[in-house]
Automatic annotation (TrEMBL):
This is DUF2768 domain-containing protein. Keywords: Membrane, Transmembrane, Transmembrane helix. The chain crosses the membrane at residues 6-27, 39-60. Pfam families: DUF2768. It comes from the Bacteria.
Length: 65
């Protein structure tokens, strides 16, 4: 995998972590409906897990110079 591909994967990972943060913010502050809280909380945790796993992949899989 080239360095540019890893760069784009890391950008996607940071984006998913940012979306997880936004979803959790809205779950904690804006939603009153328990069903919406559960759905958006689940989406946030899935995005957090995906972002974490892809960041671990990027960190521990160095590119070849």
């Amino acid at each position: 995998m080239s360095s540019m591909e890893k760069m784009w994967i890391s950008f996607g990972s940071m984006g998913s972590l940012f979306l997880a943060m936004l979803f959790m913010f809205f779950v904690k502050t804006k939603f009153n409906n328990r069903f919406l809280k559960a759905i958006f909380g689940l989406i946030a945790y899935i995005l957090l897990f995906i972002g974490f796993i892809t960041m671990i992949y990027i960190i521990f899989n160095p590119t070849k110079a």
